[in-house]
Each structure stands twice: as structure tokens, then as C-alpha cells.
Design goal:
Number of domains: 1
Mean pLDDT: 88
Number of strands: 2
Distance between the termini: 24 Å
Largest sheet: 2 strands, antiparallel
Radius of gyration: 13 Å
Strand order of the largest sheet: 1-2
């Protein structure tokens, strides 16, 4: 996640994935604006069932950015 945040000019927002998952970060690129939405890897639902609800909520946030 560190690489992605730095690559797209969000280095001041770098934190652990546990803190920033599901948050929307807007950045400006040469070709226009772009949204970055950090998410847990989908396998988290298999290995940590307790985080499945968080994963689904994060997916709703991502869907909201696409619509």
C-alpha cells in the first residue's frame, strides 16, 4: 500500500492498511482526478472470518466510487 500511496501523490496519507482500508483518497493526475480506495485482500474473508463484514463494507465504498 505504501508504494501505491506514494506513486499517486498521497505520501502524506501513508498509514497501515488496518487504519486506511475503506477510505477514499482523491488525487490529481495529469489526465484528471483519480480515487484510491485501499482494501484488504479478499482472502481475508477466508482467514479471518471476523473481518468479513469490514471487507463487505469496504466493497460498498468502492462500488460507490464506480457508480
Amino acid at each position: 500500500m505504501d508504494y501505491v500511496m506514494r506513486r499517486y501523490g498521497l505520501e502524506h496519507q501513508v498509514e497501515s492498511i488496518s487504519r486506511i482500508h475503506g477510505k477514499v483518497f482523491k488525487t490529481q493526475m495529469e489526465w484528471g482526478s483519480m480515487y484510491v480506495v485501499p482494501l484488504f485482500h479478499p482472502a481475508v474473508a477466508l482467514y479471518r472470518a471476523s473481518q468479513k463484514a469490514e471487507l463487505l463494507e469496504d466493497a460498498k465504498v468502492l462500488l460507490g466510487c464506480l457508480v
